[in-house]
Each structure stands twice: as structure tokens, then as C-alpha cells.
Design a protein that fits this description.
The protein is built from 14 helices and 15 strands. The chain has helices spanning 11-22, 24-31, 59-63, 80-90, 100-116, 134-140, 155-167, 171-180, 189-192, 195-209, 228-236, 299-315, 351-358, 383-389, and strands at residues 2-7, 35-41, 55-56, 68-73, 94-97, 121-122, 146-152, 239-250, 254-265, 277-284, 288-295, 343-348, 362-364, 373-377, 394-401. The protein starts with a strand and ends with a strand. Bound molecules: L-homoserine (HSE). L-homoserine (HSE) is lined by residues 129, 154-156, 183-185, 191, 196, 296-297.
């Protein structure tokens, strides 16, 4: 029998318990063994829960129980979760998590620790919620040299942008809806300021390029600056505004990674990814382009990926999964400032002034725009080149075009 303990009975943790129970027979068949939930750790009381008898408040009960094989960490954050994960791995118990913050900040050392203790640290649910992406990236695409990964990695911000685009809601109204639907993190700044997407692109970059990329190495901008005016201008020229996490292989094995709102052309598959859905586009030198799409947040979709990792480990508890990467280094990272692209600009200037400053531009129009406002798309140039051309201009929005 394989015994499982869940740490944290929040949205994802309770979803994991539900999937393990509802699909119990099927899971036992697939593992060819009995997989049983033995403990749920939470500081809170759940008097009405059907799992009443399983609750504990002291982690050492789980740590010291030799029967526990797999610990599911769904606490979140990088403090208590780091302590419990470290202790579980040192006790030789494999750990499965959806905690992108912990993987993005401590993944390298935790993977090393798992290896040293003959167990596994798996985190399929940390990127893209229920979408199978990490295992396909490392297994199904293993024959490729990957050149870039581009993703809509945060369900909350994609939901907010979709509601702004489709229903004309303001940012605040759409955020309240996302929170009511249970998509947003406890602290929505992690979503709206891009930190959640940043952590996910760090994990994707580490798997794609083989070296740890830390969140503080990734320039990150969220969606607070996106207004209904920007949405309307983008719409007028057939683009959708999306928050993208991107990582690219650069010459000399360097890596460029960043998170920022982009104007995505309407005919790009990423433009059609709406609501809480996520999508991750991967380019490899044998496969060409491939895209993974599905529910990037939510209780059961995320639990689906967590339980898949549990099943993988339960099938062979001592298998060396070799899912590590290198420690990374500061000089491995390249600034996105070197990447040329077209730009969307909204500024207080005339079309003539915009042309004078930026050369050939595509002016954009929207109803109700103030007279002094001009919005336009530029030709290809780097961010520093654009900044130089617009020095002294009152620029209210400036986003990269994909
Ligand atoms: N808050 C996250 C999102 C949850 O909205 O995508 C999944 O990581």
C-alpha cells in the first residue's frame, strides 16, 4: 500500500483529497497498488469534512511515520512549505507540489535534496494548472533543442483581460469577479503584478534550458497599467492584449526571460486563449511549434496534475526520475532590452510628432479618445531605442507586439 499525506487543505489540497477519493479505484488499478490518503495537515479545523479522522496539526506526525511515502505540499509560499518539504525529503518521502513560488526560488536545492535521499520532487501542477506541460516538455520533446517558450501563464490576469475586452469591465470590476470565482491567489498582487507568471516562466526556462532561473533575474510587469483605452486600440488593429511569460535561448547558452503585457496578433493561437485558460507555446528544432492549452487554475484541474504526479511516484517509489537542472548563474541571463520588436505606444503627442520621432508608424483610432492622445504601432526596434526616440514625451502606455 502507498500512503499519502496532504499538507494544506485549501483549494488545491481539498481538490487532491477529492480526486484521490472519487477516482480511488481507477488510481489503484493504474498504480497496481492501493493508494491511500493517511493524513491531512492544516492548522484550521474542518468539523464537517468527510476526512475528519485524517486531520493532524503537527507535521512531525507525518515526518516520523515510516508508512507515509508521498507528501503533497499545497500550502503555498516559500517559508513553512520550504521547511516541511525539506524535512519530508530528508525523511526519504517524495514530495509533490503545485507551489510555483517554492519551485522557482528553491527548486534546484530541493531537487538535489530529493536525489540525495533517493526520492522525488515533482511539480507538474506548478505551471499551467491542469495542463500537462512539464512532463511533455522534458519527455515528449526531449529530442529537441528548444529555442523559446511563450505562455499565457496566469488564469486570473487572463480572466481579467478577457472580461475587459469582452464585457468592457474595468480592471477593478474584473479582478473582483476573478476573486469571487476563486481564481486569484490569496494576495492578488502575485497575479496582477505578474509575479505568479514570473515564477512559472522560471520553471519553464529551467526545464527548457537546463539551468535554474530565479524570479529576481526576470524583469516582470503585470497588467495594472492596461486600460480599457489600450484594449480598444488593440482591438481596432486586430490584436488582443495578453500577459505573456517568455523565455528564449540566446547565443552562448544564455537565457532571456521576462513577463510583460503584449499585443498578440488576432491570428496567433495565443490570442484566442480566453478566461481562466492558459496556453504555452514551445518551439523546438525538430518539432517546430507546439502549443499546450487548458485550465490553468482551479481546484480540480490543478488537483488533476498533482494526483498524476502522485500516481507516477506510487508506481515506482524508488525510481530515479532525473528531473534536475543546473544551479544557474547571474551572467547567464540576458536583458530583454536586446530583443527588437514592434511596439504599441499611447502618448500625448500628435500623429506628425509620432512619425517624426519613430519613423514609419501605424496610427490607431478609438471612440472617445482625448484630442491630445495618439496611439500607434512602431516598426521593429529595441526598448532602449524606442525610449530614446520618445525621450521627453508623456507616454501613458507602451507594450511590446508579439
Ligand atoms: N492564481 C493562479 C492563476 C493560480 O490565476 O493562474 C494558478 O497558478
Amino acid at each position: 500500500m502507498v500512503h499519502v499525506a496532504i499538507l494544506g487543505f485549501g483549494t488545491v489540497g481539498s481538490g487532491v483529497a477529492e480526486v484521490l477519493t472519487t477516482n480511488g479505484r481507477l488510481i489503484d488499478q493504474r498504480v497496481n497498488n492501493l493508494v491511500r490518503l493517511k493524513y491531512i495537515l492544516d492548522v484550521r479545523d474542518f468539523p464537517d469534512s468527510p476526512y475528519q479522522d485524517l486531520f493532524v496539526k503537527d507535521f512531525s506526525v507525518i515526518e516520523n511515520d515510516p508508512e507515509v511515502d508521498i507528501v503533497v505540499e499545497t500550502i503555498g509560499g516559500a517559508r513553512i512549505a520550504l521547511d516541511f518539504t525539506t524535512r519530508a525529503l530528508k525523511a526519504g518521502k517524495s514530495v509533490v507540489t503545485s507551489n510555483k513560488e517554492l519551485v522557482a526560488t528553491h527548486g534546484y536545492e530541493l531537487l538535489q535534496l530529493a536525489k540525495a535521499n533517493g526520492c522525488s520532487y515533482l511539480f507538474e501542477a506548478s505551471v499551467g494548472g491542469g495542463i500537462p506541460i512539464l512532463r511533455p516538455l522534458t519527455s515528449c520533446l526531449a529530442a529537441n533543442e528548444l529555442s523559446q517558450v511563450t505562455g499565457i501563464l496566469n488564469g486570473t490576469t487572463n480572466y481579467i483581460l478577457t472580461r475587459m475586452i469582452r464585457a468592457g469591465l474595468t480592471f477593478e470590476e474584473a479582478l473582483r469577479e476573478a476573486q469571487a470565482n476563486g481564481y486569484a491567489e490569496k494576495d492578488p498582487t502575485a497575479d496582477v503584478d505578474g509575479h505568479d507568471a514570473c515564477r512559472k516562466i522560471c520553471i519553464l526556462a529551467a526545464l527548457a534550458f537546463g539551468e535554474h532561473v530565479y524570479p529576481d533575474q526576470v524583469p516582470t510587469e503585470g497588467i495594472r497599467r492596461v486600460t480599457l483605452g489600450d484594449v480598444a486600440y488593440a482591438d481596432s488593429c486586430g490584436y488582443k492584449i495578453k500577459l505573456l511569460g517568455r523565455c528564449l535561448r540566446m547565443p552562448e547558452n544564455k537565457v532571456c526571460a521576462f513577463v510583460a503585457p503584449h499585443l498578440v496578433p488576432g491570428d496567433d493561437p495565443l490570442a484566442g486563449v480566453e478566461d481562466v485558460f492558459n496556453a504555452i507555446a514551445v518551439t523546438g528544432n525538430a518539432i517546430g511549434d507546439v502549443m499546450f492549452y487548458g485550465r490553468g487554475a482551479g481546484k480540480l484541474p490543478t488537483a488533476s496534475a498533482v494526483v498524476a504526479d502522485v500516481i507516477d511516484i506510487a508506481k515506482d517509489l524508488k525510481k530515479d526520475r532525473r528531473n534536475g537542472w543546473g544551479p544557474g548563474s547571474p551572467d547567464m541571463m540576458v536583458s530583454p532590452d536586446v530583443l527588437p520588436s514592434r511596439w504599441y505606444v499611447r502618448a500625448n503627442m500628435t500623429v506628425e510628432q509620432a512619425r517624426e520621432a519613430c519613423g514609419e508608424i501605424q496610427p490607431l483610432a478609438r471612440g472617445g479618445a482625448p484630442e491630445e492622445e495618439t496611439a500607434f504601432l512602431t516598426g521593429e526596434m529595441t526598448a532602449p531605442a524606442l525610449q530614446e526616440k520618445l525621450a521627453g514625451v508623456d507616454v501613458s502606455s507602451c507594450f511590446r507586439v508579439l
